[in-house]
Amino acid sequence: MQSFNNKKVMVVSESLGPINGVTRATGYLLDYLLDQGIETAVLAPNLCGPNQVDNWQGRLPVIRLNGYPLVFNPELAVVKPFRMSKVFNSTFTPDVIYMASPASTGFQVWWQLRKSGIPLVANFQTDLAYYARLMLPKPIGKLASWGLDRLTSHTFRHPSIKTVLAPSHNSEKYLIDLGIPSEKIRLVGRGVDSNFFNNSKRNSQLRQKLAPNGELLLLCVSRLSLEKGFEFLAEAYEEILRRSLNAQSLPPLKLVITGGNANPNIERSIKGYFQSKHLNVHFTGPLSGEPLAEIFASADLFLFPSLTETYGQVIQEAMASGLPVIARSEGGPVDLVIHGKTGFLSDPHSKTEFVEYALELIKDHNLRRNFGHTARTLIESRSWDTINYQIAQILEEALLQKEEVKTLL
């Protein structure tokens, strides 16, 4: 990485901590840049959730910004106005800036620096407009979605942003439809730690606790949030149970849901979808580290109901753990699940198809095993080092564009 000799990189993130797939990806990138000896600083909102520990302080300069926690997910925040000149005085003036999923922090950074000559690289990892349509009342959501689309289009088309990273083909198409030139977009997914997420971590004691009667464990790992498709999952699971009870040859089932939300009202709403139907569901709460790896490895089948994913990191973690996956054919999962090889992709709006695919895998142990083995083999090539090397190369290219401009001047 010759272009990075004596160069400085600033990473701008809308959150930093073990909150979701986007933030974990940012953490892996920071690790990679530090391992390469690249001088790096990070700008992110203050940690908002309970029991959050800042693992980055002391490892590199970290500037935390004050903000207003989001009602539907208090671990994320809308940051208050800030001055980049103060950020630079506390860290350094970077040669290139990487913006992870720009929103309230990233857009402010872009606005202040769009004429500075500092090249910017943006990674589109969260579809804010889609969230607005889902989370807000219809008239407000429609207007907010339109506004966010316009803001994203204007920002990403600006010449100060040299490259826009898209995590999936669906995201790439969305950006092109917004008017971002296709030559400005690079398809870059995410890695997975296949040593950490591994079916060798299957825990017989955990299985005995979760499935004391030998139940087949269906797993969903996701933040408990209204846009994640849990109402659909509750309806599908109710139908799966009804159909499996009628077919006496099928094993008993247990659905396990891993994830949480710092807003207890949201958690209660999600759990209410299942409780109102008197469904047999075990909520583990949020897990990380070894307990998370063990819950993946100890399950038999992974169910993913969300329609809002630009990627779907937990699908890769399930595949690394040897699990076949059933997901809805929308967004990032389309790039991750090979239909009929590592799992099934159902029509996004067909509960019946989702249920049929689940039952097909529930009744066929050999099919589950074969799909899981193929998934594990496929995922072993998707390392974080491979992905972060790609991102580092893109940052280098942005630096070279800046140097070419200087030479021409």
Task: Walk me through what this model shows.
This protein has 409 residues and is an alpha/beta fold. The protein folds into two domains: 2-191 and 383-408, Rossmann fold; 199-379, Glycogen Phosphorylase B (Rossmann fold, 3-Layer(aba) Sandwich), CATH 3.40.50. It has 15 helices and 15 strands. It has helices at 21-35, 84-90, 104-113, 128-135, 138-157, 169-177, 204-210, 230-246, 264-275, 289-297, 313-320, 333-336, 351-362, 365-379, 384-408, and strands at 8-13, 39-45, 62-65, 67-69, 77-79, 96-100, 120-123, 161-166, 185-187, 216-221, 253-258, 281-285, 301-304, 325-328, 343-346. The protein has a seven-stranded parallel beta sheet with strand order 3-2-1-6-7-8-9, with helices on both faces. α1 links the parallel β1 (8-13) and β2 (39-45). α1 crosses α15 (384-408), α4 (128-135) packs antiparallel against α5 and α8 (230-246) crosses α13. It starts with 7 loop residues before the first strand and ends with a helix. The mean pLDDT is 91.
